[in-house]
Amino acid sequence: MSGLRRIAALGLGLAMIGGLSLVAATPATAVTPPTYSISGTVNVDNGDGVGVAADGATVTDVNNPAESTSTDAIGGFTLAGLADGDYTLEISLDGYATVTTDTTIAGGDVTLPEVVTLTAVTPADPEPSYYSITGTVTAKDGNSDFAATVEMNENQGYSNTVIPVDSSGNFSFENLEPNADVTLTFSADGYQTVTKDVDISAADAEVNVELLPNLPELKAGTAKITGTAEVGQVLTGSTTGWPAGTKLSYQWGFNGGQFGGPIDGATGTTLKLTKDLVGMQIVFIVTGTNDGFAPTSASAFGPHVAAAKKDAAAAPAGDSGGLAVYLEGRGVTAQSQTSAGLPAGDLNPGEDYEAELKWTATDSYVDVYLYSTPTLVGTFPVVNGAVQITLSAEVLSELEAGNHTLVVTGQSSGAVQAVALTVADMLAATGFNTGGPLAIAALLLLLGAALLVVRRRRVHA
């Protein structure tokens, strides 16, 4: 029995030792600290004081930039997996000022108590850009001793600037504002002028130019205009005397004194005259080109274009009263008769007179009436900006003595001028003395009476 007990005791001891060994071999389980989140809402203010959800704003833990998230469509965000502690969040969005906000996690999730508002910022104006134009001017004939200049035209927004090239032919314009349409003109004595358009809207530009020697001038021919310069008529241009092989081109133009230019589409040898050309002088220009020569031109100036003469229009008013209203309505004041080239004082109805008026309107003919009662004087042409009006004795003799008004109206433009004039009495103007005839008549009556008395006495005798 004692042996069995020893064996049992030995087994029990071994079992206890094995159990303790198992306990010692099993490791302890690690405790994971709890994590929490920070949530909030972000709006943007575009300057109208009304908050709008900030979609896509970035929210970052300043102390751990790896911890970052973005706001959703309604401006909400959640930054998760955060331990207890103090946090500084940075909220940013393009076009808005960045905002930071502080909060603390202490054993639970945190929701920011207030909506974070981002304010729109106005981007600073970019620094102005300035560009340059540089280049080199050379001569085709190899001449290196020529004085070339480069002009930057003022119609591009810059002051009109002309600079010389240096001894190596180089030039440079610096500090130029952006411009897509700069024009440079290169010139030198004895060489053909070259014009280049340059774009410096976004970058510097380099322009290199080779000037060609001047060509000999082509011998010009002569030009001529034939036809009647009246609306509806056709003028014909002709030219002769050009060297063989010359190619000719044509252009009709007009000259209005202070203005003029080409007539659109008139590039043939004939021109039909239209009413918009009335009063204009017509020009026919022929340009000749020939290989190896500089182009030349010949021109011919025709007469001024006249409108077709019309029958005189009706009198502008029926009497002097109506005429006064008519002139006032057109802002016309009658000028003196001397300003129209007539003599001062009463006009003799037994004589002819010539009145002259300057006429700036585009008329070929004017109608002329005399008032008090309208009397047609006639229709007169406008020649070189003036109207010559004949006041014949036949017309003047039909007028009563006193004040009258000469009214001139343009047939095409309707322009009006008026001249105040006076007409003498017909008998007074001829120098006829009414006292003499009356005395003679009285004497004749007395003689007749005396003869009658003598005759009666003879009968009674």
TrEMBL record:
Membrane-spanning residues: 435-454
A Pfam short name: CarboxypepD_reg
Any GO MF annotation of the entry: carboxypeptidase activity
Top-level taxon: Bacteria
First and last residue of the signal peptide: 1-30
Gene3D superfamilies xrefs: 2.60.40.2700, Carboxypeptidase-like, regulatory domain
Keywords noted in UniProt: Carboxypeptidase, Hydrolase, Membrane, Protease, Signal, Transmembrane, Transmembrane helix
InterPro entries to which the protein is assigned, alphabetical: Carb-bd-like_fold
SUPFAM superfamilies: Starch-binding domain-like
Coiled coil: none
Protein name: Carboxypeptidase regulatory-like domain-containing protein
